[in-house]
Write a structure and sequence with these properties.
2 domains; Aspartate Aminotransferase, domain 2; about 35% helix; Aspartate Aminotransferase, domain 1; single chain; alpha/beta; 8 helices; about 230 residues; two-stranded antiparallel sheet; four-stranded parallel β-sheet
């Protein structure tokens, strides 16, 4: 059963609200809209970049019917805490996407991520707590500083050194034309300005990781942009 069908089978539709993250693709919000309900955007946890249970609790209204967590970049949302919030308010928890079983590609990505965790300096790495099931579909670091100009300058400098990288979320969903909302989600905005995805796919070779580390560390983690 698809996500839309899960919502409609639970009687969720017109007049209902479903809490979703804004720091993600628009797919979860679009799914809620296709079911006839209204997506409500809540902030994210600063470490996992997934829905923050406390922010979800603060977003609940009399119209809230469900919470739709998105497991982002291969890292699981805190389902235990989210289900506890949902239970207190009588809400349904509908995972937008299942991560599936751990396969060899995910194990290889974990090895690459562990190497980067141990060798990168100047950026904030996404090191997960011991035992956390992180699949590293993307290896997302933060480039701290004064916001987007610092991160974007850092990305351009990496590309000039032939290191592939990308901005994982260019615009939060609540600021896109289709879902525009007048609200401030502090952690979502901060992640949008600071986060950068580095390559850790299963086919990445050790020399590529070494090149990536060398380029990042040589830049010192932060490039100032002239006014």
């Amino acid at each position: 059963m698809g996500t839309v069908e899960t919502l409609t089978a639970a009687g969720i539709g017109a007049g209902d609200e479903v809490i979703v993250p804004s720091y993600a693709t628009a797919e979860a919000a679009e799914t809620v809209r296709r079911a006839g309900a209204v997506p409500v955007f809540a902030d994210i946890d600063t470490q996992s970049l997934c829905l923050d249970p406390a922010a979800v609790a603060a977003s609940v209204t009399l119209r809230t019917a469900a919470v739709m967590p998105v497991h982002l970049f291969g890292r699981r949302a805190d389902l235990v805490a989210l289900r506890a919030v949902a239970a207190r308010h009588g809400l349904l928890v509908v995972e937008f996407e299942q991560l599936g079983p751990l396969d060899e590609a995910a194990r290889r990505r974990r090895e690459h991520a562990a190497y980067l965790d141990a060798h990168l300096t100047g950026v904030l790495t996404p090191a997960a707590p011991p035992g956390e099931d992180h699949r590293y579909r993307s290896y997302v670091v933060r480039v701290p500083g004064n916001g987007r100009p610092d991160r974007d300058a850092f990305a351009r400098a990496l590309r000039a050194r032939h290191v592939r990288c990308r901005i994982p979320v260019q615009t939060p969903v609540h600021r896109t034309p289709s879902f525009r909302r007048e609200l401030w989600l502090a952690e979502t905005e901060r992640a949008t300005e600071q986060c950068l995805a580095l390559p850790v796919n299963a086919a990445t070779e050790r020399r590529e990781l070494q090149q990536l580390v060398s380029a990042c560390n040589a830049l010192g983690g932060l490039l100032r942009v002239a006014a």
